[in-house]
């Protein structure tokens, strides 16, 4: 696809302030691509804030939870790239001491810290545990909040999945492992990139730029990891590289047939549970 003639235009690009999203969008942030007349203003916010902003259509392009997408599909189209998927790993339920998952169910006196009600981590935990009592905590504060005894358990996303043991926390369950066992090995869908539907004919070009940025990072890994490290919250460069490898890979360039199937199954289960309004349209725009 050639670069179309576009008027000078600034698009607001929302993504999380973590290494994998920074890695994904490095080429756009560092002006490594020919974007025609388009410019990208990066808006870094936690995933639950991005989910809620998408409800109002605040950003032209935004990362959302797959769970959250069900609430904003009227305004945003899901792209076929930019996915965060857990391939036999995913958000982790952790605690200070061993306990059964049944002990976390609602009414049994336990409280969980979660990163947001519309996160895929929360939805997967509901599917795994059932109803439970929880409080929303900023994602990067959850490990410490659990370690300090403010909560009985917590659901970890982002780099906390790699570092929780440093605080003496124990793993109760890995939701990516559970989902794979539930579905015959499918990856757990967590987040995706979306573009606002009112961009119309410009959407394919925007989509191509976002995919090219992912590909540039994968092809220029060292410099992209070094850029992303600033968002790693005390990760070593080795830990940052490991984390990025978990969530930015060939699957991020294309969901794949099994990845698309997994998104459908995940959201259909949510619809059957009554925790999303309805099964949303799944565009997977290339």
Please outline what is shown here.
The protein has helices at 19-24, 26-29, 47-55, 66-72, 120-129, 142-147, 160-163, 175-183, 203-219, 221-228, 237-247, 250-253, 256-273, and strands spanning 9-15, 38-44, 61-65, 76-78, 84-86, 92-95, 111-114, 133-136, 153-156, 170-174, 188-196. It has 286 residues and is of the alpha/beta class.
Architecture overview:
The structure is a single chain. Helix 3 (47-55) runs parallel beside helix 4 and helix 9 (203-219) packs across helix 10. The model has no long low-confidence stretch (mean pLDDT 95). Helix 5 links the parallel strand 7 (111-114) and strand 8 (133-136). The protein is an alpha/beta fold and 286 residues long. The strands form 2 sheets. Strands 1, 2, 3, 4, 5 and 11 form a 6-stranded mixed β-sheet that branches. It has a 5-stranded mixed β-sheet with strand order 8-7-9-6-10. Helix content is 40%, strand content 19%. It folds into 2 domains: 9-85 and 188-273, D-Maltodextrin-Binding Protein, domain 2 (3-Layer(aba) Sandwich), CATH 3.40.190.10; 92-183, 3-Layer(aba) Sandwich (D-Maltodextrin-Binding Protein, domain 2).
